[in-house]
């Protein structure tokens, strides 16, 4: 495929190629005073965000600019969407205006796939930057890049993903990708935050975080997405923290080499203790840095190099 819409179906060879390219780009830029490559000169990349974002949007913009692409940011609130324009018409407008790649974030699951379908006859590629509770493939790729740096080969590693599985697109993308790379994934959440159909993800599901910690090579905390919650999924923030927050005592139960990840933004004191988030064990800021290089690699494979097979 010529788009990156999902990690479901992304095979190990294709994922590894993107991760290797990201590593090469990172080493190429290391120590440069001016971080600029001519790779995508003359290309136009548009970020089309219908939801708020800091990390994803900024890293895509930086990635495009470091590769000399012309990057245009479009916010739904300041575009013709505010006048009632449909996603389809917006997509066709951007393609007609010369966009080589549209990076889209949308609250509706499947929106990126629909957009790619509408642009089937155009030369415009689509990258899914998060669609509803469905997927967030570049987040999974940057998480894998961070884990490779910290742990080496991911095959045979056991990764725990903890928290709001019900509303998380990050969890689904990570399960697909980590399993493709040979890792075992354990999903940990309160029963009320486990989605139906999760058995089809191919990962083991449990509600007991403490029992899993000693056997994990990495633990990824998920953001509790209160903005998507309509009803009481747990009694209180304190109760959630008691059952599923990674505090200092829980962190001490992890193996010495284990890594702590969080896609951000973090709810400190609820999902993760501040002391754990700021510890040497945590790779949270490393994830952000790797996000730029991974997104550079994705843009390279879509716009300048080999297509991503997904």
UniProtKB/TrEMBL annotation:
> What metabolic or biological pathway is this protein involved in?
Pyrimidine metabolism; UMP biosynthesis via de novo pathway; (S)-dihydroorotate from bicarbonate: step 2/3
Query: Under which EC number(s) is this enzyme classified?
Result: 2.1.3.2
Q: InterPro entries per the record?
A: Asp/Orn_carbamoyltranf_P-bd, Asp/Orn_carbamoylTrfase, Asp/Orn_carbamoylTrfase_sf, Asp_carbamoyltransf, Asp_carbamoyltransf_Asp/Orn-bd
Task: Specify whether Transferase is a keyword of the entry.
Answer: yes
Q: Name one Pfam family in it.
A: OTCace_N
Q: Which UniProt keywords apply?
A: Pyrimidine biosynthesis, Transferase
Domain (Aspartate/ornithine carbamoyltransferase carbamoyl-P binding): residue spans on this chain: 2-149
**Which enzyme class?**
transferase
Entry binding sites for carbamoyl phosphate: 55-56, 105, 136, 139, 264-265
Which GO terms fall under molecular function for this chain's record? Answer: aspartate carbamoyltransferase activity
So where does L-aspartate get bound? Answer: 83, 169, 223
Claim: Transferase is one of the keywords in the record: yes
Could you name the domain of life of the organism this protein comes from?
Bacteria
> What is the protein's known function?
Catalyzes the condensation of carbamoyl phosphate and aspartate to form carbamoyl aspartate and inorganic phosphate, the committed step in the de novo pyrimidine nucleotide biosynthesis pathway.
Binding partners and assembly: Heterododecamer (2C3:3R2) of six catalytic PyrB chains organized as two trimers (C3), and six regulatory PyrI chains organized as three dimers (R2).
What's this protein's name? Answer: Aspartate carbamoyltransferase
